[in-house]
Amino acid sequence: MQDTKNPKVRLKTTLGDMTISLNAEKAPKTVANFLRYVKDGFYDGTIFHRVIAGFMNQGGGFKPGLTEKETFGAIRNEADNGLRNETGTIAMARTSDPHSATSQFFINANNNDFLDYKSPSESGWGYCVFGKIVDGESVSQAINKVSTGSSRGYDDVPKDDVILEKAEIIA
């Protein structure tokens, strides 16, 4: 049975497994959106396509070879929920439009308070945290240490694919 307030998702990667506890009370739309992608199998076989040492690991939008996946529509940014971009938290990636998040997420590899909500302006919205790693933080740290370079016009791409083999709801 799925925990409705704090569902847990296991991310099985080529470098090991991480368990994420989601905060549906503070970020209900974001959690529902993420779980929709998980239930759909969308994340299975995707890669962590952007890794910046000491900053974050981003995934959820590309297959190996940097082939972008088609997503559902964008969701409202819930970064004003009081959750902070601290080490081990998961947040939604987006474009410069504060309300443009779809499927891509990132795991904070450091305390990134400059990504937190400040005000309801384009530059102040921040990035919505919607959960945290409760098991497997060492896997996130290992991902954050992979060698990166440029590929197909993108920077900070792991030289060897770090694949998110499966995302599954476990509680």
UniProtKB/TrEMBL annotation:
Keywords: Isomerase, Rotamase. Residues 13-169 form the PPIase cyclophilin-type domain. The keyword Isomerase applies. CDD domains: cyclophilin_EcCYP_like (cd01920). Its EC number is 5.2.1.8. InterPro entries: Cyclophilin-like_dom_sf, Cyclophilin-type_PPIase, Cyclophilin-type_PPIase_CS, Cyclophilin-type_PPIase_dom, E_coli_cyclophilin_A-like. One of its GO terms (molecular function) is peptidyl-prolyl cis-trans isomerase activity. Transmembrane segments: none annotated. It catalyses: [protein]-peptidylproline (omega=180) = [protein]-peptidylproline (omega=0). One of its GO terms (biological process) is protein folding. It is an enzyme of class 5 (isomerase). Gene3D superfamilies: Cyclophilin-like. PROSITE patterns: CSA_PPIASE_1, CSA_PPIASE_2. PPIases accelerate the folding of proteins. It catalyzes the cis-trans isomerization of proline imidic peptide bonds in oligopeptides. Belongs to the cyclophilin-type PPIase family. This is Peptidyl-prolyl cis-trans isomerase. It comes from Candidatus Kentrum sp. LFY.
